[in-house]
Specification:
81% of the residues lie in helices and 0% in strands. With 131 residues, the chain is an all-alpha fold. Helix 1 packs antiparallel against helix 2. The chain is globular, with a radius of gyration of 15 Å. 31% of the residues are buried.
């Protein structure tokens, strides 16, 4: 059952990342920037859920561990290699869901383009290899 749950979480993450990449391929305007941010939020959350599920199956986490514990265990096990980047991505995800500021939105989209998508692609590869 939990293996099926991991496969489902992985599928959701892969689809969310693909949707984010499609949005990033479009000419950017304010409307599209909002779409990129929402798709980033979804990709980040589905990534974290996939990490959590894999870590639980490896007995690295329990179901009651915090989101922070997921990131720490993901770094410890090599799912992610840049803990600072993932901390920045988490902060960006939190910023986008609590307030809107156009200059901050533009900075977050730049972060997503330059660093988030490659980091998420690396994570997806790691999860698929370990599945």
């Amino acid at each position: 059952m939990s293996e099926e749950r991991f496969e489902l979480r992985l599928e959701h993450f892969e689809k969310a990342l693909a949707a984010l990449q499609v949005a990033l391929e479009q000419p950017e305007n304010e409307f599209l920037r909002d779409s990129i941010i929402k798709r980033f939020e979804l990709a980040f959350e589905t990534a974290r859920k996939a990490m959590r599920q894999w870590l639980m199956e490896q007995d690295e986490l329990t179901g009651s561990d915090t989101k922070r514990a997921v990131m720490v265990a993901s770094f410890r096990t090599g799912l992610i290699t840049d803990a600072d980047l993932w901390d920045r991505l988490g902060a960006a995800r939190n910023d986008t869901s609590h307030e809107y500021n156009q200059s901050k939105a533009m900075a977050i989209v730049a972060l997503v383009r330059a660093e988030a998508v490659p980091a998420m692609q690396d994570l997806l590869t790691q999860l698929k290899q370990r599945a």
